[in-house]
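Protein record

Derive C-alpha cells from sequence
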Amino acid sequence: MKLIEKTIKLPKIGREASLFLLIPSDYTKHESYPLLIMNDGQNMFLDEKASFGTSWGLMEHFDSLPSMIIAGVSCANGLDRLDEYNPFVSKPFELDGIKRITGGKGDIYIHDLIETVIPFISSKYAIDDSNITIGGSSMGGLISVYASLTYPSIFKNAIGLSNAFWIAEEDFVKYIKRTRKLHKGMLYIDTGDSEDKDDFTYIESNRNVYEALLSKKINVVYREIPSGIHHESSWRERIKDIIIEVIK
C-alpha cells in the first residue's frame, strides 16, 4: 500500500486541508476502485498525525479490506469544525473557553468534497463513482449521514460512529422525515453505551435518528457498542468489520 499526503484548497469553505490517500499496492488504472472518504482525515492512518495521538489504524486494516481507495480530509480547527460538520445552525457550544452558536456550513463543506476533492482524486486514480462511501465519527458521523441522505447519487453509503446527533437532533429528525430522495445504499450508525455525559445524549439521539430512518424505509444498521467510549481507540477496534459490512 502507499499513503500519500497532499495539501488541497477547499474554495467554498475557504481553507486548506490535508488530503490523505491510501492506495492499494496492486493498483492498476485498468480497474475502478470503490472510494471511502473519511472526515477528520488526519486521525485515520498514523498515530503521529492524529489529533490525540491515536489513529483509527486504517493502514493496519487495509490489507484485510476489499480492494479500495481510502481518502481522508483533515478537519477545521476548534469550533470551525462544528460549523463545517453540521448543516443546521445549533445552540451555543463552548470549546477552549470560546462559546458561540455553531453549525450551518455543512452543505458548503459537502460541495467542496463533491466539486473539488472527488474530482481531484478521480483525475489521479480510477475510482468507481457509483460506489463512494463517506464516513466519520462524532460530528464527522453526523455530516456523513447527512451527506449520503442529501446527495445519494454521489455518496452511495455512509458510516457514522458515535454520532453527535444530539447537537441538532430535532432538526435532523425533521429533515429525515421530510426527505423524498431515493436512497439505494446503506447507512451504518452506532454509538457506545458508555458515551452519554450531561447534555451529550448519544444513545437517545442515535436511537431517534435510527427510528426516523427506518420510517423512511432506508437500509440502515444501528448498533449500541458494549463498553464503547468516545475515542479513536474504540473506533479503531470496530472500523475494519464495519467497512467490510458496508462496502461491497
Summary: The chain has one domain: 2-77+106-246. The radius of gyration is 17 Å. DSSP finds seven helices and ten strands in the chain. Residues 2-77+106-246 form a domain with the Rossmann fold fold (CATH 3.40.50.1820).
